[in-house]
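Hello,

I think I submitted the 1,6-di-O-phosphono-beta-D-fructofuranose job twice by accident. Can you confirm which output corresponds to this input? Input:
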Amino acid sequence: MSESPLLSARRKYQLHLPEIFENLASVCFEKNKETTSVSDAVEIKSLFPHLFGLSLLSAKTCKDKKDFPSFRVGVVLSGGQAAGGHNVIIGLFDALKTLNPDSCLIGFLNGPSGIIDGNVHELDEEFVSPYRNTGGFDLIGSGRTKIETEEQLKSSLETIQKFKLDGLVVIGGDDSNTNAVVLAEYLIKNGCTTKVVGVPKTIDGDLRNEYVEMSFGFDTACKTYSEMIGNLERDAISAKKYTHFVKLMGRSASHIALECALQTHPNYTFISEEVLEKKLTIKCITKELADLVEARSEKKKNYGVILIPEGLIEFIPEMKSLIEKLNDLLAGSEFASLDASASIDKVKKTLKEELLKTFEFLPEGIQKQLLLDRDPHGNVQVSHINTEKLFMETVAKELKQRDFKGSFSPVAHFFGYEGRAGFPSNFDATYCYALGYTAAALIKEGLSGYMACVNNLLADAKDWRVMGVPIISLMNLEMRKGKKKPVIQKALVDLDKGPFETFQKYRESWMLDDDYQFPGPIQFFGDPQITDRPPEILKLERS
Ligand code: FBP
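Support: Only one job matched these inputs. Its output is below.
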């Protein structure tokens, strides 16, 4: 089958590397300050006695070593797709071959389960090269299995030994990088010298710290969603009759919603972290939206665009308490045989005061979803709740009660999967290639338990800085399935930083005076100041 003209063109797109990688063989790492964990240092140290307290590393040029042995390295993609994953693998492949053409890169298939089961494909030039600058994770597939039980860790060790790996690169989000460092510690404890390195991936943008400026995939996802939001805005001011409620993927944190708001200036954007801080209730949010619809209607603007982050519901305190209570209730056997209506009746009889009021305020469709859509552990599937539809219904009800005379025609959208696997933006394509090289450099230097880090991302790629960040320095203890576990702390939107402050400064004017922006599709060609720009929030954080 013939390929699209864009695919052919993108394959030929020239990737640039940080200057330091002009001579990869001479790259070594200099120790900076020692690190600890984000918190819970004593407990975390006892769980990671070998890897706790590693120093932050900066790449520098050392003496040229001409002859490197061949390296055997495994690579795995873990979790949801994020544009640029293929370029990490290709960067790693090119780097290993640069060090020694006999080096070998082994892809673990369909995520971490490929490591546990020893399911592999050896990657060669012919196999990887068509994937250069393409989106998706189809090169080797991905999955969400976690390597955490003793049995899974033991099987992984056996696979690593069977394939005689010098290194393993785990490309994943917070949970996957947590698993990477758990595995790294386990290997050391069991006398295995294989080095484990993580790469920060996730469209959610919540895997970051002072040094890890951005997880890859975030830029492409936000540019994709922003194009679509801009198109909706254009439709809204043309048709002048619809109010678009857009739920945006991104799990708990609202980074995607904030970045898209800064790119497109919609009429209203929820930032979950602010909702939590202000302890807003569903009623209160509904009232705010209904006020907006009324105020716009008075200006003859019976249309609008509203952005809702995927995780909003978990940040509304009363909803959080309700969900926890429902999880408890539904764990009991008396609900097992009841249909939806009977379950609703029983819940209403059981809930007390405030929780009952919250439950009764919800539209019946959402009540049913809360009771019936459960994950394998029996918990409410928070990310499946149609928050956009919830607010469409509560606002319509509120407007009816107010005897609203204007018109309110809401339309629901969910922008999610379409942002994860598109062609990586120039920024993500180049960033990922550099991350692949960084992972190879860390393994070449015999370093384990580190996250590959490329920063100074607002500068030209040649001036990007290359670092190794101890994964443990991002960790704390959190409750998971009723037990305290060491995990990477999710980076939520900081309400005291530039990106949110800028949004706060302008959002009122975006409510009534339409200041819609139409970013259009991702720019692959033209002025690098436009095409290669990293996300807006990075600029505002650093300015
Ligand atoms: P990662 O955390 O693995 O990067 O996944 C991100 C994400 O796209 C979230 O934004 C979204 O909530 C979730 O994956 C959807 O998961 P699934 O692909 O299992 O439906």
